[in-house]
Amino acid sequence: MQRLEQQPFDQRPTAGSPSSEDLELVAGVLRKDRKATAEFVARYADALYGYVRSRLAPQYEHVEDLVQEVFLTSWQSLSQYRGAGPLKAWVMGIARHKVEDYYRERLRAPESIENADLEPDKSTSVPEMYRLLEQDELQKNTQRVLAALPEQYRLVLLWRYWERASAREMALKTGKTEKAIERLLARARAEFRERWNHGQSS
Amino acid sequence: MASLRDDEFMTKIADAVELSEAEPAPARLKARLYSALVQQQVQTGPLMSLSETRTSGHQLCVFEQLVRIAPVGEKAKSLNICRVCHARVLAEHLDNPPIYWSGCPYVALKKS
């Protein structure tokens, strides 16, 4: 019961504070007011869906189940929400945990790409990276390269760089050694860089 | 020429690119989420009665209103009557379900 208070799901700094609307909504959902429950879904479904989709792309088949898990867990934990921050940040924190659980489960599977040659970290020139200066293009290229990577490479990069988990955390959660995670990360980065530089998506 | 190692390269990319997708959740998913939540609420006891729901300022749909004024006990007014409503079935399966009456949570979710 103390976990949510002492170690909120959302570890990132968030702007703003809970509004009285947030607290009213929580109270309504906890009283099992069906209209408040519908409002809860209407208010957060789009943001949660967009976030989960972006973290699972391009394999979308688990997105809806994961979003549903987020809502059900939110309901189960809602009595522990004390309004220490905005409700949206709290719900998004639960989503981050669910995404991490998904990564953990997928990365626990034996690596099919274990024996791929590991090249030492190569340098990537700044001009190559910023060859695509436009934000839109940068975004599209990143999504394209991520989508084309083998699943384990993609997930480990998303977890490490977009969810900001350390290799140690990832090792603890997947039951692998830190060294194994570092090796997987190194291979994933190298593959990302290759595809980025050569524009190869397949 | 300045260079970046792969780790720095990835860090810079992740800092520069926010991956969140702006695509809204499909209406049928919202309907299913609502149904799942209410179903889970029911498992731990009755829902807020329709009389209380109305008193707290919410609009009821035509079917909820009928149950609210029917000569039945409060217990019946706390049931999940959406469970047997055709609007729920349509909303859970269609992205643009043909449901339009006011006060229905599924109609509200369709519009959200």
Your description of this structure?
- The complex is a heterodimer of chains A (202) and B (112).
- In chain A, 38% of the residues are buried.
- By secondary structure, chain A is mainly α.
- Chain A has two domains: 3-107, RNA polymerase sigma factor, region 2, helix turn helix motif (Rna Polymerase Sigma Factor, Chain: A, Orthogonal Bundle), CATH 1.10.1740; 119-198, Winged helix-like DNA-binding domain superfamily/Winged helix DNA-binding domain (Arc Repressor Mutant, subunit A, Orthogonal Bundle), CATH 1.10.10.10.
- Chain A contains ten helices and one strand; from the N terminus they run αααααβααααα.
- Chain B has one domain.
- Chain B has seven helices and one strand; from the N terminus they run βααααααα.
- Chain B has helices at residues 6-16, 27-42, 50-55, 62-69, 74-77, 86-93, 105-111; one strand spanning 3-5.
- In chain B, α2 (27-42) runs antiparallel to α7 (105-111).
- Chain B is elongated, with a radius of gyration of 22 Å.
- Chain B starts with a strand and ends with a helix.
- The model of chain B has no long low-confidence stretch (mean pLDDT 91).
- Classes of the chains: A mainly alpha (202), B mainly alpha (112).
- The interface between A and B is large, with 53 and 48 residues.
What is the architecture of the largest domain in chain A at the second tier of CATH?
Orthogonal Bundle
What class would the helix/strand composition of chain B place it in?
Answer: mainly alpha
Q: What is the total domain count of chain B?
A: 1
Please compute the radius of gyration of chain B using only Cα atoms: 22 Å
